[in-house]
C-alpha cells in the first residue's frame, strides 16, 4: 500500500497514525455497519428511484459490506464493493453468503483512488463515510461522478457544520456548511434529490459502538503495552468525532443525481 494511500486511509478511520491500520480489523471486530446506515440508503432509493431492480451499484470504501449486502438483499440490486482492507472484504463475502445474496454481490480488495479511474457506467455509486480518501469534497464529487451513467446517482454519507469551525474537536477533516455543500453540488453538475439526517436513535447507537471499540482497545493495550499511545489516541479521536456529531456537525446521507 502506498504511503499516501495509507495516510488517507488512516484519516478516514480516525486513526492518528498509519501504524494503527493493522489493528483496525480487531478494533472494529464487533461492528458490521461501519459509518453508514444501510437503512437510510435503502429508504432514499425506494422513495426516489423507479425501476432500480436491474441497477448496478458501486460501493467505494465498502468496509465490511453491510450496505452492499443489505441493499442486495432488500432491493435485489447488483453491487460491487471495494475496500483496501482485506479482512473487511473477507467478512463481506461471508455475509453475502449468509444473507444468500452472493450471486448479487462482488467484493474486491483495492484502492478506491485507482478504482474511480477504471470503474464506469454504474447506476449508483455509494461513498459511505469514507472521509477525504478521494481528496477534498470537490475532488471527491468529481471522481464519483465519473463512475456513473448520465442521470446516474451518488449516495454519499457526510456531515455539515452547524456551529463554528473553531468548535470542531476532530481536526483531521474539514467540514463544510450546508450552503457550501449546496453550492458545491451545483458547481459539480449534481442535483440534490433527497436527504436523511442522522436521528437521535442513531446517535445513541454510536455510544454502543464506542463501548465495543474501547473494550477492544483495552485488550490490545494489555497485549501490546508499548503501543498504548496509538490505541488511546484512536479512542480519543473516535470520541472527538462522536462529540462533534452531537454538538458541532450534522450527519447526513445525500442522494445526488448527475445532470
What distance lies between the first and last C-alpha atoms, to the nearest angstrom?
35 Å
Shape: globular
Low-confidence stretches: none
The proportion of strand residues reads 15-25%
**Structural category:** alpha/beta
Mean pLDDT: 89
Main pleated-sheet profile:
8 strands, mixed
Number of helices: 10
Report the radius of gyration as a whole number of Å.
18 Å
Q: How would you spell out the order of helices and strands?
A: HHHEHEHEHEHEEHEHHE
Helix content: 40-55%
What is the tally of beta strands?
8
Write a brief caption for the model.
The chain starts with a helix and ends with a strand. It contains 10 helices and 8 strands. The mean pLDDT is 89.
Please give a structural write-up:
- The protein is α/β, with parallel strands linked by helices.
- It has ten helices and eight strands.
- Strands 1, 2, 3, 4, 5, 6, 7 and 8 form an eight-stranded mixed β-sheet that branches.
- α4 links the parallel β1 and β2.
- The model has no long low-confidence stretch (mean pLDDT about 90).
Amino acid at each position: 500500500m502506498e504511503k499516501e494511500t495509507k495516510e488517507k486511509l488512516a484519516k478516514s478511520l480516525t486513526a492518528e497514525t498509519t501504524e494503527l491500520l493493522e489493528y483496525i480489523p480487531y478494533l472494529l471486530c464487533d461492528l458490521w455497519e461501519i459509518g453508514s446506515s444501510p437503512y437510510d440508503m435503502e429508504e432514499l432509493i425506494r422513495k426516489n428511484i423507479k425501476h432500480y431492480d436491474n441497477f448496478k451499484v458501486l460501493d467505494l470504501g465498502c468496509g465490511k459490506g453491510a450496505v452492499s449486502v443489505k441493499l442486495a438483499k432488500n432491493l435485489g440490486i447488483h453491487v460491487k464493493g471495494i475496500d483496501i482492507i482485506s479482512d473487511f472484504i473477507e467478512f463481506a463475502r461471508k455475509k453475502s453468503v449468509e444473507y444468500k445474496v452472493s450471486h448479487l454481490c462482488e467484493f474486491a480488495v483495492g484502492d478506491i483512488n485507482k478504482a474511480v479511474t477504471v470503474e464506469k457506467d454504474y447506476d449508483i455509486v455509494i461513498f459511505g463515510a469514507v472521509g477525504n480518501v478521494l481528496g477534498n469534497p470537490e475532488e471527491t464529487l468529481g471522481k464519483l461522478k465519473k463512475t456513473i451513467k448520465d442521470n446516474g446517482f451518488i449516495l454519499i454519507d457526510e456531515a455539515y457544520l452547524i456551529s463554528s469551525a473553531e468548535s470542531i474537536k476532530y481536526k483531521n477533516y474539514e467540514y463544510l456548511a450546508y450552503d457550501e455543500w449546496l453550492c458545491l453540488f451545483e458547481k459539480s453538475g449534481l442535483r440534490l434529490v433527497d436527504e436523511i439526517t442522522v436521528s437521535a436513535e442513531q446517535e445513541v447507537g454510536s455510544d454502543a459502538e464506542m463501548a465495543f471499540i474501547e473494550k477492544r482497545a483495552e485488550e490490545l493495550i494489555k497485549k501490546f503495552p508499548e503501543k498504548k499511545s496509538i490505541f488511546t489516541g484512536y479512542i480519543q479521536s473516535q470520541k472527538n468525532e462522536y462529540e462533534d456529531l452531537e454538538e458541532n456537525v450534522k450527519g447526513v446521507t445525500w442522494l445526488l443525481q448527475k445532470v
